[in-house]
TrEMBL record, chains A, B, C:
NCBIfam families reported for this sequence: malyCoAlyase_Halo
Keywords from the UniProt entry: Lyase, Magnesium, Metal-binding
The keyword Metal-binding appears for this protein: yes
One function term, GO molecular function aspect: magnesium ion binding
All residue ranges annotated as the HpcH/HpaI aldolase/citrate lyase domain in the record: 36-257
Keyword Repeat assigned: no
Listed cofactors: Mg(2+)
Biological process, per Gene Ontology: oxaloacetate metabolic process
UniProt organism field: Haloarcula nitratireducens
UniProt cross-references to Pfam families, sorted A to Z: HpcH_HpaI
Name the record gives this protein: Citrate lyase subunit beta
Gene3D superfamilies: Phosphoenolpyruvate-binding domains
Amino acid sequence: MTDTRLCRTFQTAPAAVPRDDSAKFLDSGLTSEGFQTPDWLVPDIEDGTAPSMKDEAVENIADRLPDHAPDFAGEILPRVEWAYDGEEFRERGTEQVRRLADEVGEHLDGFVFPKVGRLDDVRDAAGVLADAEREAGLADGTLEMAIILETAAARSDLREICQFAADSRLSGIVFGPVDYTAELGGRALHGERPRWDGLLEALSNETSAADIVAIGGPFDQLFHERAGVTYYNAEGYADQVEHEATIGIDGSWSLHPKQTAQANRVHMPSGEELDRDLSKIEAFNDAKREGTGAVVVDGQMVDEATYKNFANTVQKVRAIDESHPEQTGEHYDDALLSRALDVELIFN
Amino acid sequence: MTDTRLCRTFQTAPAAVPRDDSAKFLDSGLTSEGFQTPDWLVPDIEDGTAPSMKDEAVENIADRLPDHAPDFAGEILPRVEWAYDGEEFRERGTEQVRRLADEVGEHLDGFVFPKVGRLDDVRDAAGVLADAEREAGLADGTLEMAIILETAAARSDLREICQFAADSRLSGIVFGPVDYTAELGGRALHGERPRWDGLLEALSNETSAADIVAIGGPFDQLFHERAGVTYYNAEGYADQVEHEATIGIDGSWSLHPKQTAQANRVHMPSGEELDRDLSKIEAFNDAKREGTGAVVVDGQMVDEATYKNFANTVQKVRAIDESHPEQTGEHYDDALLSRALDVELIFN
Amino acid sequence: MTDTRLCRTFQTAPAAVPRDDSAKFLDSGLTSEGFQTPDWLVPDIEDGTAPSMKDEAVENIADRLPDHAPDFAGEILPRVEWAYDGEEFRERGTEQVRRLADEVGEHLDGFVFPKVGRLDDVRDAAGVLADAEREAGLADGTLEMAIILETAAARSDLREICQFAADSRLSGIVFGPVDYTAELGGRALHGERPRWDGLLEALSNETSAADIVAIGGPFDQLFHERAGVTYYNAEGYADQVEHEATIGIDGSWSLHPKQTAQANRVHMPSGEELDRDLSKIEAFNDAKREGTGAVVVDGQMVDEATYKNFANTVQKVRAIDESHPEQTGEHYDDALLSRALDVELIFN
């Protein structure tokens, strides 16, 4: 787990749907290309899959991963069933983890647990993973864990849950606003759910303190309709993703390849951003050689503290370039990318 | 304590005022009808009653309850004196609780304690209730407790105070923004106090995790004046109450029967809301029978998680209908109400 | 530490800059007059001073304080180097504290520690002060401590850090938004950093519960340019300071004498505010003599709770008048000031 770990997109794909080809969406995720490849692909056995198709969902994952996982550029973490207040969900989830770890454990990066409760429940989920790992003969710590933050109990224990990550396989926390709003008894009185700003700010802080990944919630108004024509709601989703990026949420939930393509880009510095921050770093580096502490660039004071903000931008670009050179190649012009790869970072 | 417990309105009424009939407002609350009946009536011995009239306030309550309480549809919880940082307030409050429990305990549902501090102080208040209950010969747990959240110390301990509710008679937390703002040294620089969004979000979360009731703060701009005419500020109050409902605050503070009539309605699903949520539930129920996991209704994905939001609406209507059939009868047309009472709730 | 302690302004001044007179900004702060005198002057050895000039910064402070500190109306707390995640910073900071305590300890009110982490790290910094104090032969507790809240770890432990203040020399917490945003990985996507409302609200609450001082973050857009003319950004800074005052943040960070002059005024009640609150107090005092509990003034209910808000205004004016009579003399007309100094405060 490092600051430059990529987690721009968390794309859920129902692992079985009632079609002739029930693995349609799973296959689509596993074979996605370019900006449509999510950093994390999450084959969904939970809410996205009908109760009657849970077994087929597990089979589809076990069937498809050996063929597709080796060539997939991102990480793969299925979402299994779980609920802090429902034993039958935990039992089914435990069985799903066990089967997948046993059959395709070497192709998996971990599992996602929804509806966790207080710290004890998160510990239980981690224990399920440890057991499954051992039974499957996988090395200790192979399987990472992400949880969905969508209950009042988990929000209440958020700080302790994040501290638990230091000694555990917990590597990411994902916001689940729909269940969360329902648990709190919130109402979309004028058509909008609350954004839960306090929760998002705490999520960004506690995951940063624990050096794990924070992911925003899904955006389900996928399409708009006007005058009889339905179109992809690119504005609404980008607004949410940009807000998440602003407050330090590392990545965004995607329900569709188009959302993945957008979120991968938003969580990537723009050319203008990169040029601006590079210019400030270069100006500061020059001033530093002359022994000045505080430098004013374009009327803004730059010091060690502001410098680190600019260095973050450069480091992110370097990380994306390492695993997705086709994305950085498309996104930045050559001269700018070279500056980003070559500049000296005094503080970072 | 269940999810469907009604707590839409917390109406304070000064228990003694300097008039010929000093129990005027108390009587008015106890004999209110229809939508003006608060779910909780709070005869106020604290800030609403002048220091010189505290004894008369206690006497008024002891005098009026035997006549009116048996016919009153809501719960009755007097607010006594208390302050974490003032021993004389706690002593007077203790005496007020003792006298009322002894004289009219069988007509009371509990007491409200203002200006509590950290968890220890809340425990002390609970101990006062337990003692009074025993001395009055009431069954253990008869008297519930609500507290006003209006000090920095109580806000700091909010999570622990809510966890204490699991083993105690604490059943509700009410926000007190005026004292709270004063404690923090806040200023209404442009005429408006802060809304304290972080506190309200935490209050909604922690009370939900503890399964107790959360109530918003009073709205004291009761009246507006324009061109010489003073009128009830229906807009301002409704805006506040609607915001509270949106974020899952269960009920609102009322200072006036008109506010009670508004808050009872806002915390009740509108006909349009009920129809919309019923339609989604019915569409999902139909799709479920065909074995589909994720259903799109009006461009929005509906799954088990979103479903629960819609089920909340229906369950609230059923709870109100049980205790206030005249309110549901007035508020909904017959066909809609029948659908709400009859629909099958698959997840809830 | 009392409620009336003055901390309207926290002005940092680089203690050494690469000019002929390297103590230019330090001298300017120490000899400031009238509204430009900060309540706390913070000679900055950390980010405001170039790495090559740290020693000269310490020397400048040791050199200037004996001459200027005795006549300086505010408190003096140098900011030394420190970082929870950098041992070399802590070692240099420890040495800086030791030297200054030894050489000019009698002219210092304390020290400011940046980039502290969890409670343990804050304890360590307090230990450094205690050691330096003892070695310098200063009375126990002479040197106070303020910390900059600018890491995810410190935000996570904010409640515990504030509780630690009860048994320690910790007397103030200052927000550092630039480093904080960088730590969380936040981005100024549309040119603006987040305001971190949740953090500010928690900071106001926890410092109030601990009875210590809360200070907002620096505002670095010092100047604007239009049509070739650069001018002081008075609007932007005042907006930020007013927001801080509204939510009970006690004082504001200043980077410039003009900012100090503004923040000193904003954190001082306006004449209109003072007149309004005095009128309500006077009206309430009159009504109280007639035995009324709840009083309506201009359509707003005034009770003991609202009264305290008004009393806060009066008490603040009295505190400023005690130490800066020239400021209150300039700010208020004589009749108004006399009313503030003479009115009886029934509740406060």
